[in-house]
Amino acid sequence: MATPAPAPGRPASRSAGHRVLLAPVTVTPSKPLTPSHLKGLLWSDVMYRATRHVAEVTLRYSHTTYHPTEQTLGFWEFLDRRYGDLDYTSLDERAVGELYVAFRAAGEDVPAAALRPYAQAVEHGWTHPAATTVLRVWAEQYTALGLTDPGLLAHQPPGLGLTEVIARLGTLGMCLDQRALGGPVYLDLTRHGLPLRTLVSADGRPNYLACALRELLPLAPAYDEVVLLYDSQLDPDYQRLARVLTALGPTVVRVPVGRVPVDGRIRSAREGGWHDHDARALLAAARSGHTPAAVRLGMRLYFIAVLGPGQSEGHRPDLLHQCLGRAERLLAAADGDPEPPVPPLAERVARHRGSHLHVDPYRLTSSLLGRRRRPAGDLLTGVYL
Prior knowledge:
Elements: E1 19-24, H1 35-51, E2 56-59, H2 63-66, H3 70-83, H4 93-106, H5 112-123, H6 129-145, H7 162-171, E3 175-177, E4 185-187, E5 197-200, H8 208-216, E6 225-231, H9 235-246, E7 251-257, H10 279-287, H11 292-306, H12 317-334, H13 345-350, H14 361-370, H15 377-384
C-alpha cells in the first residue's frame, strides 16, 4: 500500500501511521512572557518541530479553551469595573501585566453571576481587548524567537461543552456530580488512588482542569501518543488528566518542565518584577550584536540544554550570552564545506525519542553542545531556526 503524501509544509514521516498530539500548558495572556514561560514555549516548539520529522504531530495550544477559567474572566471583569473604556491599544504587555498584578493583589471574590456574561461571550468567539493587546505583542515575539504560531489570535474552541464532558466522565465512572444537590462536580479517580478534585464549583465555575478535559477528551482517541507538557508545579492535576486520557486508548506521556528561578527565587508573574528579564528585555539584549538566527538558536541552547528540565538552575544572563556566542559558531560551522554523507535527518532525530514516539528536546539540543563534529545545516533549519 502506498504511503499517503504528507500535508503541505510538513516533512515526510519515517513512522507512517504514528500520530502524536502535543498539548502544552497555555500561558494566560495577561502579562509579559517571563523566563519560565519562555522555557516552556521553546521546549514545546523544539519537541514539535523535531517530532514532525518522525511522526504525524499536532500542536494543540488554544487560548480560547482556557479563557473561561476564573482567573481570566475575573481579571476581565476587574478591568471593566475599575477602568471602564480604557483604550488597551495604547498599552503594551507590561502595562497590562501591571493591571493584572493589581487584580491579584486586590484579592476580590467576584460573584459567579458577574462572570457569566463573559463566559458566554467567550463561547461565541469574544476576547477582551486587554488579552488581544498581549497576544499581539506575543505574536511579534514568537516571530523573533522563531516559535511556531499555534493560532494565538484565532478563535479555537474546544470540541466539547462542559455538560458533555461531565456526561463522558460519568460514562467512564470518573465523575461525582452533586449539582442536583447544589454542590460541585468532582473528577472521581479514587479507585485509582487519587483524591477527589473539583472540576466545576457549586456556582458553576469551571477550573483549568475542566477546560483541559473539554479540549482533550474529544481529541485524544485519534492519536497513538498524547504528550502533556506543563509546569512541574501543576503535576497533581496533570497526573489526573493523564489517567483520564489513558482510559481513552492512547499512550499518555507527562513532561513536567521546571520554572526558572530569578535571583534565587521562583516567582509567579502575578507578583510582577519582571521588567529586567521578560521576553522584551531578553530579546533586546540578545539582538544587540547577534544575528536573528543566532538569537533563535542561542535561546534554545540556553533554555533547553543549559537550564534543563528541572528548576535548580536559575536565570544567568552570562550563560545566555555564552549560548548566543555558541550559536553563532555553530551556524558558521554549518555553513562551511559539507561533511561526508550523514544519515537522513529523520534517522538522526529519531535517536532522541527514547521509548516514545515524540522527540526529547533536552536530549536533542544537548547533543548540539556536546558534538565535536559540526552540526548538519538541515538539523538547524529543520528544528531550530
